[in-house]
Amino acid sequence: MVSGGVVVVTTPSFGSFSDEPWETAAGEGIDLRRSRVPGPLSPTQLRDELADAVGVIVGVDRLDRATIEAASNLRVIGKHGVGVDNIDLAAAAERGIPVVWTPGANSSAVADMAMALLLAGSRQLVAADASLRRGEWEVFSGMALEGASVGVVGFGNIGQAVARRLAGFDADVVAYDPFQPGEAFAALGTRRATLAHLIEQSDIITLHLPFTPEDGPLLGAAEFAAARRGVGIVNTARGGLIDDIALAAALTSGQVGFAALDAFAAEPLAADSPLRAAPRTILTPHAAAFTELANARAGNAVVRDVARVLRGEAPLDPVTFSR
Ligand SMILES: NC(=O)c1ccc[n+]([C@@H]2O[C@H](COP(=O)([O-])OP(=O)(O)OC[C@H]3O[C@@H](n4cnc5c(N)ncnc54)[C@H](O)[C@@H]3O)[C@@H](O)[C@H]2O)c1
């Protein structure tokens, strides 16, 4: 065994739609085991699971400072996917524990889901289906994507994949991402905008940026008020990017035309979340990355990089941490 100890997998989605990642782990000589409790785990559950582990592969479980400091044998942290807001990167860096992730592995799956949500929201598909099943034959009108202004916030792997898909629908794509070079926008014929302009100009806003807990929500009451009346909101990124209470109020008033959400500030979504009762809302259980292809890619990539670190090699996809 290359690992010299157990690598614990906490995310139930790892290798669940494809056996490939388990075979890859065996081929790499990794002693890989699922956590006794299926994730997402609480910090206390994680502490128990990681008591002897040399590595961990997490999903959205909160790997906080105390947990990282308590895991005395831990030599590598793998993120199954992208979005490391649940991992205390500073604590890992201080202990010299590399964090690896799988950039790009699930981009097309998430971009497909963003399009599915965007289309379902703009054409009221879920409400139309429910209406028909109640025995009605009601007319549901919707928003045309042709010529619609769609604002993409975060223009990385997924944001760009969504922009490519939107171009095929003849939408007018505008994007905000202060960290991407101008060529990235030009290459896809996407107009670059400030966040304020994007919010004011868009018929639909779709989020594809990381969540930084210290920054708080990107879209709240002020942003919804500044947006076009009837704006559609799509979120396949992170729930914390949106103020749920403000969104529910804006849906109720009609200021927001629809919301189609795959990610929530607290998951699973609370039974009393105002989003459950809000009108014109489509909710999916953080499922955007769940395709067989993406599952195999992300699982294989994280296992290979975990193995590299445990062998003492440099990882291919380290998460860089800067204070
Ligand atoms: N729902 C799901 O299952 C699922 C799956 C994968 C990823 N995600 C989320 O989607 C996000 C994007 O994933 P990706 O693969 O495209 O990541 P990525 O790193 O390729 O792209 C993120 C982009 O956001 C930009 N960005 C960072 N801070 C920003 C800010 N304040 N304003 C605007 N742009 C900003 C970055 O410059 C980068 O270009 C992830 O961070 C993750 O939270 C969700």
From TrEMBL:
The keyword Electron transport does not apply. InterPro entries: D-2-hydroxyacid_DH (IPR050857), D-isomer_2_OHA_DH_cat_dom (IPR006139), D-isomer_DH_CS1 (IPR029752), D-isomer_DH_NAD-bd (IPR006140), NAD(P)-bd_dom_sf (IPR036291). This is D-3-phosphoglycerate dehydrogenase. It comes from the Bacteria. GO terms for biological process: amino acid biosynthetic process. Belongs to the D-isomer specific 2-hydroxyacid dehydrogenase family. GO terms for molecular function: NAD binding; oxidoreductase activity, acting on the CH-OH group of donors, NAD or NADP as acceptor. It comes from Conyzicola nivalis. Residues 115-288 form the D-isomer specific 2-hydroxyacid dehydrogenase NAD-binding domain. Keywords: Amino-acid biosynthesis, NAD, Oxidoreductase. Residues 40-319 form the D-isomer specific 2-hydroxyacid dehydrogenase catalytic domain.
